[in-house]
Amino acid sequence: MSDIRHSLLRRDALSAAKEVLYHLDIYFSSQLQNAPLPIVDKGPIELLEEFIFQVPKERNSQPKRLNSLQELQLLEIMCSYFQEQTKDSVRQIIFSALFSPQGNKADDGRMVLLGKLVSMAVAVCRVPVLECAASWLQRTPAIYSVRLARALVDDYCCLVPGSIQTLKQIFSASPRFCCQFITSVTVLYDLSSDDLIPPSDLLEMVVSWIFEDPRLILITFLNTPIAANLPIGFLELTPLTGLIRWCVKAPLAYKRKKKASLSNGHLTNKIAKDSATGADKDCHLLYSKLHLSVLQVLMMLQGHLTEKNLYGRLGLVPFDHVVPLVEEINRLSDELNPLNASKEIELALDRLAQALQVAMASGALLCTRDDLRTVCARLPHNNLLQLVISGPVQQATHAALPPGFYPHIHTPPLGYPAHAAHPALPAHPAHPALPAHPVQTFIPGMTFPYRPIR
User: Bigger pLDDT: 54 or 132?
Assistant: First the structure.
């Protein structure tokens, strides 16, 4: 590596960057012939930091600065390299060597350049770069993944109005990147404050992607070898938890935002109020569509988990993430005052109950009804949530019913008329045959009567 470094020192910044990629391509290609997963040692990392990120090797030296034109040319060099390299394994290891955080002073420059490279790849549809970025998002700590997501949101949702359409079009080019991007933005925008409510353009794009093909959010899960114990601090295998958070918290978060705007005097005239109301109504419709898609995906999971031999072993909606979500809903409900936000609280709790029930039925949420009762005990009353956490009731075996059938509870099942009270029958050795009592088959995943908590 020292010989390569000496030859690169004699070149200008851009030709040195191009040359270092060429040398490392040869180096890692030979390494991959000997080992399927070669270890990236210190030498290549230092070359990349010095000649790509312009971090001098000598401590007392001043870092070099590329001007805007040189930086654009460097991004073109890197984009072209990944586009022209036909071996995915070589692309992946070079990308990892370039952009995996090292815990040193080069990391800030590394993240800035990564954001610009991926943004360029979106603009010119460079699929190899997007695929490498998808892998990077999966194996990099979430604090860095969120930084990349923020850079893309700034470029395509905030900087130039209407540019979101460019980002939207990569859905068909790289679904894997889209899946990881959705997971990242659900971590970034957790609705914990008004600033962390997803921009409407971003929300519309995410909902359109998922509504068009709900399986999009399972791509990483379906195409990744998985152990039952996932590493802590990284993105989850699916964005399901984050999307459930969006759907459940949205009614309360938007109500809080509206309340803050009114108290600050931001919506003083009728036109501004009508505009804000219309925009919020559009967003609420999008969250409803998103909630439907999330429930559809949850219903698919039982078969996929069984195929991977992970049913009952891997919770794709971790219970540890449900607990803080419930606490946030409880806090928001108290903050908004139930008298002024009863509809929003009811909608949030209805969505929570639906998500919990379907997630438990599909094996995505691994917990007991007792766990849910404990966690949800402080939430405002909600009929649907009470039914979910109480669970189905199996009464004592009925002599007239075959095993596996359950009589109705309190009220007749749908489709059966209510029975009038039977008149007293005279004592007689032979009673006339009474009509059969209506029964309802218990089918997992189907609706059935519950016993409310008393």
Answer: 132
Which residue reads 């060429």 in tokens? 22
CA angle 409, 410, 414 (to 5 degrees): 75
* Global pTM value: 0.83
Place of tokens 């070099």: 64
> Pick from 56, 44, 139, 46: which is nearest to 94 by CA?
44
Burial class (CB in 10 A: 0-12, 13-18, 19+), 274: exposed
Sign of CA dihedral 250, 252, 254, 256: negative
Task: Give me the amino acid identity at 103.
Answer: G
pLDDT digits (tens, 9 = 90+) for 237-296: 999 999 999 999 999 999 999 888 776 665 555 544 545 566 778 899 999 999 999 999
pLDDT 10s digits, 382-417: 999 999 998 765 444 444 444 443 333 333 444 444
Specify burial of residue 286 (Cβ count, 10 A radius: 0-12, 13-18, 19+).
buried
Tell me the two tokens of residue 144.
Answer: 């860095």
Q: What is the distance between the alpha carbons of residues 330 and 328, in angstroms, rounded to a whole number?
A: 5
Burial of 140 (0-12, 13-18, 19+ CB in 10 A): buried
